[in-house]
From TrEMBL:
Membrane topology note: Multi-pass membrane protein
Upper classification of the organism: Bacteria, Pseudomonadati, Pseudomonadota, Alphaproteobacteria, Hyphomicrobiales
InterPro entries assigned to the protein according to its UniProt record, in alphabetical order: ABC_transp_permease (IPR001851), LivM-like (IPR043428)
Protein name: Amino acid/amide ABC transporter membrane protein 2 (HAAT family)
Compartmental location: Cell membrane
Membrane spanning stretches: 12-33, 71-89, 95-114, 165-185, 215-234, 246-265, 285-302
GO cellular component: plasma membrane
Record carries keyword Lipoprotein: no
Residue ranges of coiled coil: none
Example of a GO MF term: branched-chain amino acid transmembrane transporter activity
Protein's organism: Roseiarcus fermentans
Keywords assigned by UniProt, alphabetized: Cell membrane, Membrane, Transmembrane, Transmembrane helix
Amino acid sequence: MSLLELENASRLQHGVWIAAAALLAVLILAPWWADDSDLRSIAEFAYLVAIAQMWNLLAGYGGLISVGQQVFIGIGGYTLLILSLDAGISPFLCIPVAGVVSALFAVPIAAVVFRLQGPYFAIGTWVVADVFRLALDNVPAIGGGSGKSLTSALMSIPGWQREATTYWIALGLGVGLTIGVYLILRSRLGLAMTAVRDSVPASESLGVRVGRTKLLIYVASALGLGMAGALIYLTKLRVSPDAAFSMDWTVLMIFIVVIGGIGTVEGPIVGTAVFFFLRAMLADFGPWYLVILGSVAVVVMLKARRGIWGWVAGRFNFHVFPTRRRIRVNSLRSGFAEMPPSPRYLTE
């Protein structure tokens, strides 16, 4: 028996997972018991969780603060448009392809923006997204600045089948990317990510390949955002440069993650729930809606800098997705077993 061993999830965490699995089973059957508006709301919730998880992976765990991640949502949307209208591929099959295309674009984009550091990196990512927007504004074949409709690509699909399939893909994307982030964080890549985020010199001294780690994080985030972008515009039925490459997408990701809890897997889920609640409560406030949202974000950042879930986890020491292994001291059969515990022995 070793002196230290890793502690896994608690019984309470297992109970939460079982409850979540039961809820997921109910949601999978939603096309048979929910109306179209409910399906669209759940699908929107799922894809917002998905894009927030991707920004959280990049910034919260990788330390790469980007304000230009909308570029991959736009690439995903336009991949869907081109492949479904011009190549005749099923719009549903275009969604994973859009993720791959976005990941491929992420490699040369990373080669440019990774030359920048700190705030210059953030500004550089925004400039790249705006370059894509301006470029597609001047391509008449895909609608130019006014964009193009996707309605004709979906006309041959029965209404119920279209709504249900879109819903299931959204649900799968939200759940799948959340689990994917959790698995990454439990892997060696996750340890390398957090090491790079905390200190590049220290991680290099431990043998972490910093450039490779950052590239993998960036490409993984682009993959998820590309699929989410294709799904988003499959539900909106029209793609235009100003909408697809709008900075509003990244602002929404940042708001959700900051409110929910940056650097936690649970944060984007909590943040999306808070956003939906505030949007429903403030729908009649007109322009004041955005002012109140901004005020809520400022208050949370001042009172709970780690976000709502970060505060809950710190206060009650509870994690639904435990990404940090806890050290537990075991007694040994040797003479060390009789050694009285003290803080000095636990920290050395």
